[in-house]
Amino acid sequence: MKLLALDTSTQDLSLAIQNGEQRVEFHETVGQQHAERALPELQKLLDAAGLKLGELDAIVYGQGPGSFTGLRIGAGLAQGLAVSASLPLIGIPTLDAVAAQAPATERLLVCLDARMQEVYVGHYDTRHGVRRQGPIELLDPAELRLTESGWIAAGNGLSVYADRLPENLTAQLARQLPELRPSAAAYLDLAGSGAYPSLDASSAELLYVRNKVALTAREQQAQRR
């Protein structure tokens, strides 16, 4: 397949193109410059892969959860490209992309920093592909619970809020992989599995999980006490 994948859910800009056996990637921390950097870097990747946009089979994008602004930029970019080239879209949750990079295990906890003293959490079985056990949740780190030991934790959520975790949680973990984060290359792997449907560009959706964008000044002050 010929696929283009993009993720702007974090401060990283992650892009990748699959052209049969060939894969070219770009992954860099860009802060708030996703909108400025995305199209020029995408064009470089298309050139490197020897493809034109209209020759792709689909565009894969990170649905979220993640940065509200970043998600909207990514979805808008994916939709714009898809409409201009009459291509379908494949949306994939960000936590699934993190799970795809972790070792195969029956017990995988994906936990990403959601800001505002909260984390995005998903439980997975990755022994035979990426299988999420239940919905992605938004939790206070202090509310995290595991029913048994031997879990692998992926993502930066536990390390960011290490001082807020339940006392016994770390002891239940066999391994922690805080460096894993959403990447376009992982989206390509997941899209290639056929587990995620392709949709018309007009049907593209985002997975926010959280409805509230920012804390009020009073809430911020309360958290500093």
Q: How many structural domains in the coordinates?
A: 2
For the record, what CATH class of the largest domain applies? Alpha Beta
Beta-strand portion reads 25-35%
| Shape annotation | globular
Structural class: alpha/beta
Radius of gyration: 18 Å
Secondary structure tally, helices? 6
The CATH topology of the largest domain is Nucleotidyltransferase, domain 5
**CATH superfamily label of the largest domain:** ATPase, nucleotide binding domain
Helix content: 25-40%
Q: Which stretches are low in confidence, meaning pLDDT under 50 for 5 or more residues running?
A: 213-225
Report how far the terminal alpha carbons are from each other.
53 Å
Largest sheet: 6 strands, mixed
H/E element string? EEEHEHEHEEEEEHEHH
Number of strands: 11
Protein name: tRNA (Adenosine(37)-N6)-threonylcarbamoyltransferase complex dimerization subunit type 1 TsaB
Enzyme class: transferase
Organism: Crenobacter oryzisoli
Pfam families: TsaD
Topology summary:
Blueprint: E1 2-7, E2 12-19, E3 22-29, H1 34-49, E4 58-64, H2 68-85, E5 89-93, H3 94-99, E6 108-113, E7 119-125, E8 131-132, E9 137-139, E10 151-154, H4 157-160, E11 173-177, H5 184-192, H6 217-224
Parallel strand pairs: 1-4, 4-5, 6-10, 10-11
Antiparallel strand pairs: 1-2, 2-3, 6-7, 7-8, 7-9
